[in-house]
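Re: that backbone. C-alpha cells:
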C-alpha cells in the first residue's frame, strides 16, 4: 500500500487547507494518506476544526516553534521514515523548504510533489531565493493550482517544468439549498425583500472587505452584507460600519462552521480582494447556485462561470455598479454546472494521484 504525506504550515480553516482536506476525503482507498501540519499539536488541530474529526488518526502535528527550526526538519524526517512515505506533497513555501531539507536524510527514494497556491509572494527576492534552494535540494515535481500561477513561476524559473492542476471542491457538500431556510439557520432576522451579499474570508486588509462596506453605502437600503470570518481588521471594519450608519445592514458572523448554509443564504457572493491565488470561495458559492462579483486579481478569472461578473478594480463605485447589475432571481444552474465540469475535488485528486504514480503499476 502506497503512503502519501501532505505537509502544510498549519491546519485551520482556509483555502489551501480545505483543498488538502478534500484530497484526503477523495483519495483512493488503496492509499494511506496523512496530513502533517508543521504548526500545532495533533490534538489541538483536530479540536479546533471539527471537519478533521473523521480523519483524526491521519493528522500529524509537529508543534513547530517560531522562527527557523532544525528540530522540525528532524521531526519531519522521522514522520517520513516511520510512515514509510512514498510521496511527500508540500504546500506553499515554508513546507517546501522544510520538506526538501528533511528529504535529504532519507536512504530510500521518496517522490516530492509541491503545489504552489499563489504567485504574488514570489515578488519577494527572499521567497524566490528560498524557492530556488528548495528546488535544488529535492528537485520536486511542481504543480500550479492556476494558469496564472504557472506562468508566474515559469517567468522566474525559466526551464523548470510546471504542471497545472486546478483546485476543486466537494459539490456534494456545497449544493443548492433553500434561501429562507438557510437564513433561519444562521439566525438572521432580515426584512422582507432583503438582497443579501456575502463575503467569506479572513478579516485582513488584503481581503478588501473595507471596499465592500463602502460599496454597500452606495446601494439601496434593502441590500445587506454578511461577513463570515475573523481577523485583525474587525474593529477597523466595525468603525467603518458605524461611520456610514450601516449597523443594521452589515452582519459580522465570525467563524462559520456550516459554510454551505452561509452560501445558500445569499443572493450574491462578492470577493473584493487585493490579492488572491485560486480562491475556493467563489467555487463554493457557485456550486450552491450563487453568482459572484469578484475583483480580477490572481487566478480569480479562472474560477468564474458566465453567471458571475469579473470587475477590474475593487473601488466602491465599481463594486456597487456591478452588484446592481446582477439580476436577482432564481438559482444559477450554469454556475453549478461550471463547477461540476471544471472544479470537482474528485477530478483534482485523481489528477494528482496520476502524477504521483505516473508510469508505475500500483
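Recovered sequence:
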Amino acid at each position: 500500500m502506497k503512503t502519501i504525506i501532505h505537509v502544510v504550515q498549519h491546519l485551520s480553516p482556509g483555502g489551501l487547507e480545505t483543498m488538502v482536506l478534500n484530497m484526503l476525503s477523495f483519495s483512493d482507498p488503496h492509499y494511506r494518506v496523512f496530513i502533517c501540519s508543521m504548526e500545532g499539536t495533533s490534538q489541538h488541530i483536530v479540536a479546533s476544526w471539527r471537519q478533521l474529526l473523521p480523519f483524526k488518526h491521519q493528522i500529524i502535528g509537529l508543534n513547530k516553534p517560531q522562527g527557523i527550526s532544525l528540530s522540525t526538519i528532524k521531526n519531519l524526517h522521522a514522520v517520513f521514515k516511520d510512515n514509510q512515505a512514498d510521496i511527500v506533497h508540500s504546500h506553499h513555501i515554508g513546507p517546501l523548504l522544510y520538506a526538501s531539507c528533511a528529504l535529504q536524510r532519507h536512504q530510500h527514494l521518496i517522490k516530492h510533489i509541491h503545489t504552489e497556491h499563489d504567485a504574488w509572494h514570489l515578488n519577494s527576492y527572499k521567497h524566490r531565493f528560498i524557492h530556488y534552494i528548495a528546488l535544488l535540494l529535492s528537485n520536486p515535481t511542481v504543480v500550479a493550482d492556476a494558469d496564472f500561477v504557472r506562468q508566474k513561476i515559469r517567468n522566474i524559473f525559466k526551464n523548470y517544468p510546471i504542471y497545472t492542476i486546478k483546485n476543486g471542491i466537494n459539490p456534494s457538500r456545497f449544493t443548492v439549498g433553500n434561501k429562507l431556510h438557510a437564513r433561519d439557520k444562521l439566525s438572521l432576522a432580515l426584512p422582507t425583500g432583503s438582497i443579501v451579499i456575502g463575503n467569506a474570508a479572513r478579516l485582513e486588509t488584503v481581503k478588501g472587505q473595507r471596499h465592500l462596506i463602502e460599496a454597500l453605502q452606495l446601494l439601496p437600503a434593502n441590500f445587506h452584507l454578511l461577513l463570515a470570518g475573523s481577523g485583525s481588521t474587525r474593529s477597523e471594519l466595525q468603525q467603518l460600519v458605524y461611520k456610514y450608519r450601516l449597523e443594521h445592514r452589515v452582519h459580522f458572523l465570525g467563524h462559520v462552521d456550516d459554510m454551505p448554509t452561509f452560501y445558500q443564504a445569499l443572493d450574491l457572493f462578492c470577493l473584493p480582494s487585493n490579492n488572491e491565488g485560486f480562491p475556493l470561495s467563489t467555487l463554493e458559492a457557485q456550486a450552491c447556485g450563487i453568482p459572484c462579483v469578484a475583483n480580477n486579481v490572481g487566478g480569480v478569472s479562472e474560477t468564474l462561470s458566465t453567471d458571475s461578473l469579473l470587475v477590474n478594480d475593487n473601488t466602491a463605485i465599481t463594486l456597487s455598479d456591478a452588484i446592481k447589475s446582477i439580476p436577482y432571481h432564481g438559482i444559477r444552474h450554469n454556475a453549478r454546472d461550471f463547477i461540476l465540469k471544471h472544479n470537482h475535488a474528485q477530478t483534482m485528486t485523481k489528477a494528482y494521484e496520476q502524477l504521483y504514480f505516473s508510469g508505475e503499476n500500483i
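The domain at 3-168+344-356 is CATH 3.40.50.2000 (Rossmann fold). The mean pLDDT is 94.
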